[in-house]
TrEMBL record:
Residues 1-37, 56-77 are annotated as: Disordered. It comes from Morus notabilis. PANTHER family: BNAA09G04570D PROTEIN, BNAC04G53230D PROTEIN. Residues 1-30 have a biased composition (Polar residues). InterPro entries: DUF247_pln. This is Uncharacterized protein. Keywords: Membrane, Transmembrane, Transmembrane helix. The chain crosses the membrane at residues 496-519. Residues 56-73 have a biased composition (Basic and acidic residues).
Length: 523
C-alpha cells in the first residue's frame, strides 16, 4: 500500500444522505398463531395470498388480462449473500452507505426496510410490464412458483429471512422481477415520466440495481421474459423478450466502470442477436455479475468463458497482460515493489489512455530501444456512482472462488492504489485523460484510493497484473536505460540546459584564447 496516507478516516466527499437505519417492518404485536411468512408479507406487500397480489396488479378500470386466471450445483461463492464480515469491519459509515439502497430494495435481503420497499412504485412498473406482454399476471407468478426451489439455490444458505416460505418468496421475486425489467426498459428508452420517476430517482434506482446485497437471481428475469413470449408470434426480434434483453444489454453497458458517457453508441450498430446469444450463454448470476463481466471484457460479445463449467461461467485468463511471456533475468520481481507515478516518470515511464473499455486492456510496453516505457490504462470516470459500483464489485469478487472467477476489479484497484500516492499522481492521470475526476479535488481522489487500498481491498487470490508489475519493475531497475532516459528528460527535452551544455565549453575555450592573447600579444 502507499506510504503517504495521512488520514485514514477521511475517505471521500459524500453527496448522498446519511444511511437510513435498517429496521424491520415485521409486526411483533401479533399472536403466536399467526404465520410469520404471512406477517412479513402482510406488512411488506400488504398481501398474504397470491390472489391479493394479483388483484393489486389489476388496472383500476378493469384489466382484462389480469382477470384471467435446481438443483444446478452452484457453488456458494457465486450465490446471493451479504458483504463478508471482514470487509464490513474495515470500513466506516461514509463507505458503508455505498452498500445500502438510496431509493428501492430488490430481493429478500433488503425487503425488511419499509423505507426502500416502494410497493406502489413496483406495482406500477409491474402492471405496465404485464400489460405490454399480453400475458396474464398469474401466468408469471405461476412460473416463478414452479421454479422456486431452483431459485432458492441462487441464495447462500441462511441468508433468506426465516419468515419467508416458498409462496411469499415467490411473490416477492415475481413483483421485483417485473418491476426491474420494466424499469430497465423505460430507463434506456427515457420513458420514466409515466411512473412519476424524476431524474434523480432514476439515477438512484439505477445505482441500487448494482448493489451487492440488493440482487435477485438473473434467472427470475429470464423466466419472466420467457413467459412474456407465450402469446407472441412472429420473428424472434419481434417478441417482447428480445426488447427486454436488448434493454438489459444496453443498461449494463452504459454502467461499465470503464465506459465514457457515450460508450454504448458503438454497440448500437452491432447485431443484437449476437449479444443476446452471448447473454444466454454466459448465464449471469445477477445484474452485478453481468456488470463485472462487461467491465472486464468491455462488451458482452467479448466475454471469454469455459463452456465446460456447469455451475457458472468461468472467465478465462486470455488477457493481453497475462499472455505476454515474461522475460526472465534470473530472478522474480515482487509485484508489491511497483512504484508510484512520480517515481516511474523519473525512469522514463509515461501513462497513456487506452482506447478500450475493458479492464483487461491494461498493458505495459517499451519503445526507443527499450529506453522508455509506457503504461496504457482505460478511462475511469471517478464519481459517486462509480465509487458505489466499484465497492460493490469488490464485495462480489471477494466472495468468489478462484476456480470460478479471476479477481479482475480487485486487481485493477490494487494496481491503481500502487500507482497513486499523491495528488500529483492523480493530476498526471487526469492530464492523460485516464482519470476523469468528478468526485472532488485531486488530493481527495488520491486519499480515496490510498484509504481504499489500506483498509478495504482484500489481497487478490489471482493478481491479474502481476506480470505487468514485474515488467515495470524490471524496466525501472535497468540502470543504463534509466540514465539515458533521465539525460533526455533533464537536458534534451528542455532546450535551455541543452544550450547551456554546448555554450559552456565554447565560453571556456574563448576565455582560454583571450587569456593566451593577453599574455602573448601580437607584435
Amino acid at each position: 500500500m502507499t506510504s503517504n496516507v495521512k488520514n485514514n478516516q477521511r475517505v471521500l466527499k459524500q453527496t448522498n444522505n446519511d444511511v437510513q437505519p435498517e429496521t424491520t417492518s415485521v409486526s411483533r404485536a401479533k399472536t403466536s398463531n399467526d404465520d410469520p411468512a404471512e406477517l412479513v408479507l402482510k406488512d411488506f406487500l400488504g398481501v398474504t395470498k397470491d390472489e391479493e397480489l394479483l388483484e393489486n396488479l389489476k388496472e383500476k378500470n378493469g384489466d382484462k388480462s389480469a382477470d384471467k386466471k435446481d438443483e444446478q450445483g452452484r457453488s456458494s461463492q457465486a450465490k446471493i449473500q451479504k458483504v463478508l464480515h471482514y470487509l464490513r469491519q474495515n470500513i466506516d459509515n461514509k463507505v458503508r452507505k455505498h452498500f445500502v439502497p438510496r431509493e428501492i430494495s430488490v430481493g429478500p435481503l433488503r425487503a425488511g426496510n419499509a423505507h426502500w420497499l416502494k410497493k406502489e412504485l413496483k406495482l406500477g412498473l409491474a402492471k405496465t410490464f404485464i400489460k405490454d406482454s399480453g400475458t396474464t399476471a398469474d401466468s408469471f407468478l405461476a412460473e416463478i412458483k414452479k421454479n422456486i426451489r431452483d431459485l432458492k439455490t441462487c441464495f447462500i444458505e441462511g441468508v433468506i429471512p426465516q419468515y419467508y416460505n416458498d409462496d411469499s418468496l415467490a411473490r416477492l421475486l415475481f413483483l421485483d422481477g417485473c418491476a426491474v425489467l420494466q424499469f430497465i426498459r423505460s430507463y434506456v428508452s427515457e420513458n420514466l415520466e409515466e411512473f412519476n420517476i424524476n431524474s434523480t430517482q432514476a439515477v438512484f434506482i439505477q445505482q441500487d440495481l448494482f448493489l451487492f446485497e440488493n440482487q435477485i437471481p438473473f434467472k427470475v428475469l429470464t423466466l419472466l421474459m420467457g413467459v412474456s413470449d407465450m402469446g407472441a408470434t412472429g420473428k424472434e426480434n419481434e417478441k417482447p423478450s428480445f426488447y427486454y434483453k436488448a434493454s438489459i444489454i444496453q443498461f449494463v453497458h452504459e454502467n461499465n466502470i470503464c465506459a465514457t458517457n457515450n460508450a454504448f453508441n458503438y454497440y448500437r450498430k452491432r447485431d443484437y442477436h449476437q449479444m443476446i446469444g452471448m447473454l444466454e450463454k454466459i448465464k449471469p448470476v445477477h445484474l452485478l455479475d453481468l456488470l463485472q463481466k462487461v467491465s472486464v471484457f468491455g462488451s458482452i460479445k467479448d466475454v471469454e468463458f469455459d463452456e465446460d463449467e456447469t455451475d457458472t461461467v468461468k472467465i478465462v485468463s486470455k488477457w493481453s497482460c497475462f499472455t505476454d511471456e515474461l522475460e526472465e533475468h534470473g530472478r522474480r520481481v515482487e509485484a508489491q515493489s511497483l512504484r508510484s507515478i512520480q517515481e516511474l516518470k523519473s525512469s522514463g515511464i509515461t501513462m497513456k489512455l487506452s482506447n478500450s473499455r475493458s479492464l483487461k486492456s491494461v498493458t505495459f510496453d517499451t519503445h526507443c530501444l527499450g529506453i522508455f516505457g509506457r503504461i496504457k490504462l482505460p478511462a475511469l470516470n471517478v464519481n459517486d456512482s462509480t465509487v458505489r459500483k466499484l465497492l460493490n464489485l469488490v464485495a462480489y469478487e471477494a466472495c468468489l472462488d478462484s476456480k470460478e472467477r479471476y479477481y479482475s476489479v480487485i486487481s485493477y484497484l490494487n494496481f491503481l492504489d500502487l500507482l497513486i500516492d499523491t495528488e500529483q499522481d492523480v493530476k498526471d492521470l487526469r492530464k492523460a485523460r485516464i482519470l476523469r475526476n468528478a468526485l472532488g479535488s485531486d488530493a481527495e481522489v488520491a486519499q480515496f484510493f490510498n484509504t481504499l487500498g489500506l483498509t478495504y481491498l482484500p489481497k487478490p487470490k489471482e493478481d491479474h497484473f502481476e506480470r505487468i508489475h514485474n515488467k515495470i519493475e524490471e524496466h525501472y531497475v535497468r540502470k543504463w536505460e534509466i540514465k539515458m532516459a533521465r539525460i533526455y528528460i533533464d537536458y534534451l527535452k528542455n532546450p535551455w540546459p541543452t544550450l547551456a551544455f554546448f555554450l559552456a565549453p565554447a565560453a571556456l575555450l574563448l576565455t582560454i584564447v583571450q587569456t593566451w592573447y593577453a599574455i602573448h600579444p601580437r607584435r
